[in-house]
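To assess whether ligand presence alters the predicted conformation, the chain was also submitted together with iron/sulfur cluster. Input:
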Amino acid sequence: MQAELAPRKKTRPIRVGPVTIGGDHPIVVQSMTITDTRDVEETAAQCEALADVGCEMVRVAVVDDEAARALGKIKERIRLPLIADIHFNYRHALTAIEQGVDKVRINPGNIGGEEKFLEVIRRLRDAGMPARIGVNAGSLAMDLVEKYGYPTSDALVESAMRYLEVCDREGYTDFVVSLKSSSVPMTVQAYRKFAALETGVPLHIGVTEAGDPAYGAVKSAAGLGGLLVDGIGDTLRVSLLGDPTLEIPVAFDILKATGRRVINPEIVACPSCGRIEIDLERIVAEVKERLGTSKLPIVVSVLGCVVNGPGEAREADIGIAAGRGFGMLFKKGVMVRKLKEDEMVDALVEEIGRMEAEADTA
Ligand code: SF4
């Protein structure tokens, strides 16, 4: 399956604190706090909660000058690279730079015109600080809206290219770009068209305003999945309503499902059907729980009967193909043991434990 994965689009690496976005570096998972940034302790606590679940960089909303001046104190209290999210007032970007954040996200479409964008870019360049230039369908320049009639993927790309040219003239290259909309087709088309221009600029991918956790996860997977398979995307955020820590496992699951970044076992289970002869739901739930902390990037398949079971199990790194009250344990395509139903979970988990130990000593 991995053989079908397109190579990553070539982009230049951008350092954000200790993390690198782009080049051959792993696709970085990021999120955004929902606390009032002026509340330093609460915001820092949420940043730390995000770090605990695997988030790799965090963005905070800079709503006013007080929030901008809180950034340095937040940065002192957290482990993750800190990104200042700026809309409307370019002065907040200048304060964020002075506060020594790790990256600034600006939306050039709403900070008051090219002169102000230029001033921010020059200050970023002089401070050696990276940025995200975030183009958004909701804040396109008026002439582009007039030209295209309404926001389109072409309008998003044209808008991004304008800002790129400004950065180019100023000698500033230390940035990533995003081209977001709440429409999956528009978002996907915009990123594909931008990637085809081969600018070398790393891409932050995401579907904005994705929705409540259940639908937002589906919408993000629909938008980001195709891009990742195409090799597009160097950092991503899954945008879900509510607790941002919920975004992180969804982001890693999208990376895992697309084969772009696998940091723990992928458990493949059949949906089950009238042919099922074992309690597959219980077995899969138990396997998932017992592998909860495993960091082994392998495919584990648990199939309910002999129709597809042996074939699928052979494709996986390790797997069980069940029959009537028994199962066959396959490892790297070879059947290693026949098991009773009540032995399956223990045998599978023990075997994976051995694989983990082997990987640790390799
Ligand atoms: S593997 Fe067997 S039990 Fe599972 S869905 Fe396929 S046919 Fe049904």
